[in-house]
Amino acid sequence: MNRKTFPIHLSLAIALVLLAAIAGQLRREWHKAADATVRVSELRSPRRPAEVLVRFRPNVAPQEIENIARALHDQIEDRIEAVPGLTVIADEDGLDVDQVVNQYRARAEVEYAEPNYVISLDPEFDQPRPSNPDYALPNSDDPDEPDDPMFGEQWALRNSGQRDGKVGADIAAMRAWTKTIGSHEVVVAVLDSGVDYLHPDLINNIWTRPESIAAYHDPELGVIDDRHGYNAVDNNGDPMDENGHGTHVAGIIGAEGDNGIGIAGINWNVRIMPLKFMSAGGFGTTKAAIECINYVIDRKRAGVPVRIINASWGSTRRSRALEDAIRRANDEGILFVAASGNAGSNTDLSPHYPASYQLPNVISVAALNRHDQLASFSNYGPRSVHIAAPGAEILSTWLNGSYEEHSGTSMAAPVISGVAALVLSLEPDLSVRDLRARLLASVDQLESLKGKIVTGGRINAARAVGASD
């Protein structure tokens, strides 16, 4: 090779190598983006008919609603029995969702119409951390501690300063457990991606429909054998989690305590009712969330003692239909605990729903880290976020019998739901108004939360259940 041309050939070779590397990276990133797009397109595909939520005025009879839908070449998919007049309608003549919404809004018989919005899980800012019981921090020598081998990692329940945390920056679970460890007579609905109801640390605390209560019946969907809850994604009775998020939430509320495996939930004894409205990719719709709430109300009326719905998700879009469904849950004595969101924003100015609905049964929850500081990702709001709870580096149950640490207001909300269940284990007839007031009054004031949230404090489980100091 000519020495004069060698640098040119070398430069070309280097350029080709770099180009190939860049192309490979772009290909990998494209595949990642394509995977994400596929998950979203499951709900947004133009091949799917536009779906809208329409609430008709009280004087409009069911047959008249049928006639209106037929005249507009639409099909009624579902009627939400808990909210009179609320109807799920699918377009059948190829219109886009805004056109369908406007058609119904223009009619005098309609109170409101809105798209069936997509809802997704809030992003996490910390990397999930798988945990192995063989490498967990050792438990203390306190004989009152549960024998769950990973309890030493659960700083939210007992903060001994592990991993450089602040001693005492916890919910005082140990003192609360001297008064109650929960009850199987209390049912908490986890409205999420479902729950791994076969997880060894959850299986004994999963709700099972009693033989004395008939299977769920929906006039449009038919009879559903809801042995362990409800799946609104596939309209069946199998709410098995394929994402992991709902299983993590469930473990915080009620992983079986003192059973020699894994972790301890805030309630050692409780009944978790799995509700699946999100897919494996972490996407759902307002329609599916509402159908799950409708299911809970039906089961409550049938005699199931379900008193709490946990909602560890949210959206910046306000849905009047979802708000109406949560309002009806209040009428049935059901508390609705919601994550405030992970945008680090003031929700007084930028609302995050459903946590930002101003309803008497809603509690909006911010997240704290192991130093009793507001987590960097947590939303806050002096008027719109009510209470705080541990939500960073929270260890809980995961898919296939495993355990992982996750961070988010998604992890803080079930702490409040768990404490609410402890209170109800002692006072099952407490009204939703009094239960909510009890929780908001049972806080430890923190300087870091002053002017940030309504109560200015972190939940204290011992105070909520009346355990002595």
From TrEMBL:
Residues 122-150 are annotated as: Disordered. InterPro entries: Fervidolysin-like_N_prodom (IPR054399), Peptidase_S8/S53_dom (IPR000209), Peptidase_S8/S53_dom_sf (IPR036852), Peptidase_S8/S53_subtilisin (IPR051048), Peptidase_S8_Asp-AS (IPR023827), Peptidase_S8_His-AS (IPR022398), Peptidase_S8_Ser-AS (IPR023828), Peptidase_S8_subtilisin-rel (IPR015500). It comes from Pyrinomonas methylaliphatogenes. Transmembrane segments: none annotated. Residues 51-116 form the Fervidolysin-like N-terminal prodomain domain. GO terms for biological process: proteolysis. Coiled coil: none annotated. One of its GO terms (molecular function) is serine-type endopeptidase activity. It comes from the Bacteria. This is Subtilisin-like serine protease. Pfam families: Fervidolysin_NPro-like (PF22148), Peptidase_S8 (PF00082). Residues 141-150 have a biased composition (Acidic residues). PROSITE patterns: SUBTILASE, SUBTILASE_ASP, SUBTILASE_HIS, SUBTILASE_SER. Belongs to the peptidase S8 family. Residues 184-445 form the Peptidase S8/S53 domain. The keyword Transmembrane does not apply. The active site is at D192 (charge relay system), H245 (charge relay system), S410 (charge relay system). Gene3D superfamilies: Peptidase S8/S53 domain. Keywords: Hydrolase, Protease, Serine protease.
